[in-house]
Specification:
The protein is an alpha+beta fold. It has helices spanning 2-8, 14-46, 74-81, 146-154, 168-173, 207-217, 238-247, 255-258, 260-297, 299-307, 312-353, 362-393; strands at 56-61, 86-91, 93-94, 98-105, 108-114, 117-118, 139-145, 175-182, 185-197, 227-232, 249-251. It has a five-stranded mixed sheet. A four-stranded antiparallel sheet has the order 2-10-1-11, with helices on one face. The chain has a two-stranded antiparallel sheet with strand order 3-6. A hairpin with a 2-residue loop joins strand 8 (175-182) and strand 9. Helix 2 (14-46) packs antiparallel against helix 12 (362-393).
Length: 394
């Protein structure tokens, strides 16, 4: 090995290897930066705790006249479920009885009529261990829209000095006095707010509670579905919007706006990764040309080494070592650069969004290792083929 290295290292161009190193480093950093930025930003724009709406659309039918019920038929629901743009479909189940809620706050008594609805748990954007109804405890977990709290803090509380502004934590500590009436029964329950929804503009209770309470307090009428929630591939899909318009369905949010940030994030990251791949491809071309030129310069020595009995693997080993050393150092340096850059922007994201960034560098490391092994394999393959080609010519 020492002898072979001494014979071959004369014609190694450190300038060409340096160009390869820099070009490949730039390409690797750009690719891994795109992967890491996407990993860190995706939960903010599309996760359960997203700053903006994600790929869910709530639809209903427009009320056209007084006392008209605008509900979805079974055939309409099934047709929606079978559309190409629909990933999942859930139905809102309303409470079919009267609900009165009372609350003591700052020495004042509040009481109002309420309404309850439920949806399948997989469509919830609030996760809580308390999201389960137990009839023996008479305690009902409730999720309310976050804008209800904002309406109180920046609306009602401004009209009276006796109404203090309250935090989400304080709201979760309050207990609502619930009175359910219907079907000849009137019973008292305790309502417990367990979370605040950014996705759904309704007062939600668990499905098992709605099923149980409708059986106990409702008049026995069939439950009709007036609202649906769809998980869709792309809320701004022209086909989806055209379908809604043709069937007279009204989205309760703005699906064309709700996925813009995620779409722009995907496009931006895609562009970054493509640029990185171009840099990496160019660096591979430079390395390939450098290796071929280096092998061509040493062609006589390579032929002699093969003639005196050195195997293809032995002759290729110095070049393989160079390729492995370069690729490994590029990958490690790239990950270090990404980690340092991430430390700079992660605090800014947490401060500006007010949310914890729970992402890690695991995916970035996996992608980096995969690229490193692919580059090493490519380099070793072309080195071996070139040496075999030289041997055959001889």
């Amino acid at each position: 090995m020492t002898l072979i290295w001494k014979l071959l290292r004369k014609h190694i161009s450190w300038f060409e290897l340096g160009v390869f190193f820099i070009a490949n480093l730039i390409g690797m950093v750009v690719i891994l930066a795109g992967v890491q930025i996407y990993t860190d930003l995706r939960p903010i724009v599309a996760g359960d705790n997203a700053l903006i709406g994600n790929d869910y659309v709530v639809i209903s039918k427009s009320v056209k006249r007084v006392n008209s019920k605008q509900v979805f038929s079974d055939s309409e629901i099934e047709d929606l479920r079978n559309q190409s743009f629909t990933l999942r479909l859930g139905e809102f189940t309303p409470a079919q009885y009267q609900v009165t809620g009372g609350l003591n706050l700052a020495g004042q008594r509040f009481s109002t009529l309420l309404f309850f609805e439920s949806i399948p748990d997989e469509f919830m954007d609030v996760k809580s261990r308390e999201w389960k109804f137990k009839s023996a405890k008479r305690k009902v977990p409730i999720v309310i829209p976050r804008n209800y709290l904002n309406l109180y803090n920046f609306g009602f509380s401004q009209t009276s000095d006796k109404l203090p502004q309250i935090t989400e934590g304080m709201m979760k500590d309050l207990e609502l006095e619930l009175t359910l009436s219907g079907g000849g029964h009137t019973e008292q329950f305790v309502g417990k707010i367990v979370g605040f929804s950014d996705r759904l503009n309704t007062i939600l209770v668990p499905e098992d509670f709605i099923t149980w309470s409708n059986k106990r307090f409702a008049k026995g009428e069939d439950i009709e579905t007036s609202r649906l929630i769809l998980e869709v591939i792309n809320p701004s899909d022209p086909e989806l919007l055209r379908y809604f318009k043709e069937h007279g369905y009204k989205p309760e949010d703005k699906p064309a706006e709700s996925s813009k940030a995620l779409f722009l994030l995907r496009v931006s990251v895609g562009v970054i990764i493509v640029i990185g791949l171009v840099f990496s491809l160019l660096s591979l071309i430079i390395l390939t040309l450098s290796i071929y030129l280096l092998l061509q310069k040493n062609i006589d020595k390579l032929e002699n080494l093969r003639l005196i009995g050195y195997s293809t693997s032995a002759v290729a080993r110095p070049y393989n070592i160079i390729a492995i050393a370069l690729s490994t150092s590029i990958m490690l340096l790239s990950l270090w650069i990404i980690s340092q850059v991430r430390m700079l922007y992660i605090d800014y994201l947490i401060e500006s969004t007010g949310r914890e960034i729970g992402g890690t560098m695991a995916l970035t490391i996996v992608v980096g290792l995969a690229l490193m092994f692919a580059i090493i394999f490519f380099n070793m393959t072309i080195i071996r083929r070139k040496i075999i080609q030289i041997s055959r010519k001889r």
